[in-house]
Amino acid sequence: MSATHVNAPELAEFERMLKRPNSDPTGLAGFFNPGQIWVARVPARLDVMGGIADYSGANVCEAVLGSGNLIALQPRTDRTLRIRTVQIGERNLPVETRIPLDYFIKDDQPSDYRDVRATCQRNPLASWAAYLGGSIFTMLREEGIPLAYGFSMLLLSGVPMNVGIGSSAATEVGTICCLNAYLGLDLGSDRIAKLAQLAENHVVGAPCGSMDQIAVASGREGCLTHILCRPGSVEGEVEIPPGTGFVGINSMVRHSVGGHQYGDVRIGAFMGKRMINSLRADSGKSRIDYLTIISPEEWRDMYRDHLPEEINGADFLSQFRTHDDPVTTVQPGAVYRVRGPTEHAILENERVLRFMDALKAAKGGNEEHLIEAGNRMYEAHESYRDNCRLSVPEVDFLVESVRKLGPQAGLYGAKITGGGSGGTVAVFGKQEALDEHIPVIAREYSRRIGSMPDIFSGTSPGAVEFRARRYSFDASGWHPTLL
Length: 483
What we know:
Blueprint: H1 9-19, E1 36-49, E2 59-75, E3 80-87, E4 95-100, E5 105-106, E6 109-110, H2 113-121, H3 129-143, E7 151-157, H4 167-183, H5 189-204, H6 211-218, E8 223-228, E9 233-239, E10 244-250, H7 260-282, H8 296-303, E11 310-312, H9 313-320, E12 335-337, H10 339-361, H11 367-386, H12 393-405, E13 411-416, E14 424-430, H13 431-449, E15 455-456, H14 463-466, E16 469-474, E17 477-482
Parallel strand pairs: 3-7
Antiparallel strand pairs: 1-2, 1-16, 2-7, 2-8, 3-4, 5-6, 8-9, 10-14, 10-15, 11-12, 13-14, 16-17
């Protein structure tokens, strides 16, 4: 039995677990019945450039990592979702919960997103089940799929959770890919990513953009994926210059895009867009749907000085009524920074374009272009820190450790990633320099925080490139079929 891709360690571990006997609690003999299992494997992602500007319609540039999550699904005879989570590693034990499908139905129709989200939030110990169960519910609601029975579902995680490398998106996309394969729906990558984003926005309650879900669904091994988030389309691939690469260092400061810092910055950016549209209306200009339609020059010349540094929620609502964002809520008693988050989105979009241009120019071997690309990463980090207040001292330490070694050591750039407030730092450099210096930086950092940080490296196929598998059981064991 083997359908193992050379760069899919989670699939190899899944096959080992299938072979373990009933007496082994880390095996799957007592969880899945002999029959058929549908499997999807989805990589984690490294947010190289773009990050939180995704919800403002920015261009972003994402990498797929060598590790990720595997989702396995088998139909049951009852109306229950039995969900087991296993973190790959020594002596890690499974965590399990069950969700009645009836929780997803009200008056013979799919329930409201708010009701399902409230159910998940009332059960925080089962929080990661919301990513799988929420994806099932989203498919049921958005695709009109009648489910007469539930599923046994496995989340086999090859990456830590809540470290800013898209593990939640990988879980959602993997769940939808499994159900897509099981039902034979033939959903495309764009639809899979959109459904996964809906699950995270409306069931999990995290106000993320589309970047993560598109990256892990459509990313290709060995390339960066250029995504335009208006609302979300793959614009192409960016080759990584020969001899260079990207790695991630886990700051070990846990982050969540459901946290208030991320949400407050998003609200501030949407407030900024609402104010700009008001100014445009006063001057007879058309409304913009995305902040990043505004050029940096237009921002500085026409709008920057007209936006407040911050505003009270009640004052904003009194003047503008709404910030036009369906997944966040302005709190009247809160104070929101406006100018900084708005500026970050507009300038980050330009930085991403210049970063990709520099990488393309660097294919000729000119180190100046590598240094230029790295400088765009440092600028992005500084804007996260200063405009958005989404950095933390631990992350700043890691970025500065890379900067101190610099191009003379073969390290060109570093930045905070994703939703910020901890999580993972992306580093760009010559591959041999990354291999030599990043473990040293990690050891120095471990003395500062008291534990050794994870280093995320490698590359592997996105969910669509990898393709789903169906495992069938017979007298000789389990056998995979590529779908």
